[in-house]
Amino acid sequence: VEERASSDNLSVSQPPFSSDFIAELVKLLGQSHVLTERFDCQAYDSDWTKIPGDAHLVARPGSTAEVSQVLALCSRYQVAVVPSGGRTGLAGGATVKKGQLALSLNRLNRLGEVDRIGRTITVQAGVTVESVHQKAKEFSLTWPIDLASKGTATIGGNLSTNAGGVRVIRYGMTRKWVTAIEAVLMSGEIIRLNDGLEKNNTGYDLLQLLIGAEGTLAVVTEATLKLTKRSTNSQVFFFHVPSLEKLNDLLTHAWAGPFQINAFEFLSQDCLKLVQRNLKRGNNVETDSPFYVLMEVEPFQDDLTTWMEATFEKGYATNGAHGQSPEQQKELWSIREGITESIAQVGPVVKYDVAVPVKSIAEFLNSVRTQYQKTPRQFDLYLFGHYGDGSPHLNLVKQSSASQEAFEASISTFEKELFPLLKQFKGSASSEHGVGVAKKHWVKFSRTPTEMNLFAMIKRSFDPKGLLNPGKIIDLA
Ligand code: 2HG
Ligand code: ZN
Fold first, then answer.
1. Which end of the chain has less Cβ packing within 10 Å, N or C?
2. Helices 361-374 and 244-255 sit at what angle, rounded to 10 degrees?
3. 3-class secondary structure, 456
4. Residue 340 Cβ < 6 Å to ligand 1
């Protein structure tokens, strides 16, 4: 719930910025790249969670050297720094508290050349995911991390959150697709990790440590991304699935199909109805089924008829659309990609982005639904997400008749059961959105005290003064 997250201890309180500090910052970057008016700074307050922030100072360095100088300056003045990319995060990892400097990486937007023999591209942190896709496409290649926010999400943020998205079932998460990182430590020192090597077994993997660190260990300024062949013959199915059990059957049947599965995404009927009503998409899909699956495949053979016939004969799906042309596929994808936006139009929402072993997802979701039935109805439950990865999204949306207090109280009741349930299923409290500030109080359900101690030691060894994105992931005593 927004209020609860915002009142969390984001950091020890900081003094207001001194005029000397601001003057030195302006000297480094030039007046036009230091924002001091609250009106100009407010866009940097938070991410898509809208957890309230209060940015009063924004630095917009234009190079790694300038990032280094800014961090060194902040260290000297003991000013806390919050790295800021496209701010499409869903855990409040970019939320800026009063007295913290927002460090925008957006001017670091150099897109390098594609290395066609090594199949990589080197880009700066502020480049959007979509720009990487467009560049790679010129060479029939892609960076296979794909998510609805790709037009705004930047590489720095993607790496810092180890973003997932809709094709993890085929390609894995961001961390599999990075071979070098340049980053700046809070002291101002620039580090280059791994330098594009495919194989490098020389001790601890610091590159992987920075991926998913949510900007708490170092500021990512540049990365070399691994590319792969772009699929050109993919096909998309949109199935009507009569139950969660049948979703499992359909997935098992799909694994045995004559294709590679690129995506296996599900949504409940309520999600479909919202997308139809609020975004006017998918209006020709009948709302006759409790669940729907969007499956993207890359066939090994031209004809998928036999496989499809068996799908319906065996009752794994009751109806379906088959998108073969790029336009049809885009239309089907737009239903899945519109869910978050259509939910945002309804009202306050609490999002859980959890993971359970794939084999347990149906059972887990059934338990969640039972729990939902038992909880006083102050919210509606929307289920969707990455079924094939065991990574469902639970969105709890306030009912319009409920007061904010009653909504929050019912969320607390629901959570008290949800997290033990997750533990019972050996799940994770955050499958892909990270921890930020929004999920700090849930981490203990996924990590042991020993792990949390190691987290704190790692954090201190990178950032002894605790100035880099303080209060995100963990609170240091
Ligand atoms: C998605 O899978 C994103 O569409 C957003 O991770 C999920 O809004 C959400 O809960
Ligand atoms: Zn997701």
1. C
2. 160
3. helix
4. yes
Ligand showing the shortest atom-to-Cα distance for residue 149: 1
Q: Which two tokens stand for residue 190?
A: 């620039």
> How far apart are the CA of 362 and the centre of ligand 2, in A?
17
Q: What SS3 state is found at 379?
A: strand
Q: Is 135 left (phi over 0), alpha (psi -120 to 50) or beta?
A: alpha
Taking the C-alpha atoms of residue 30 and residue 127, their distance in angstroms, rounded to an integer, is 22
Token pair listed for 81: 């720094």
Q: Does the structure show a pLDDT above 70 at 296? A: yes
Which residue in 145, 142, 131, 206 sits closest to 176, CA to CA?
145
Q: d(Cα 415, Cα 379) in Å, to the nearest integer?
A: 13
**Alpha helices (H) in 234-360, listed in sequence order:** 244-255, 269-274, 305-313, 326-337, 339-344
Say how far apart CA 277 and CA 127 lie, in whole Å.
34
Each residue's pLDDT tens digit, 171-213: 999 999 999 999 999 999 999 999 999 999 999 999 999 999 9
> What is the token pair recorded at 184?
């700046």
CA of 185 to the centre of ligand 1 (A): 31
Q: For ligand 1, is residue 431 a contact (CB within 6 Å)?
A: no
DSSP string for residues in 287-304: ---SEEEEEEEEESSS--
Query: Model pTM?
Result: 0.94
CB burial of residue 243 (10 Å; 0-12, 13-18, 19+): middle
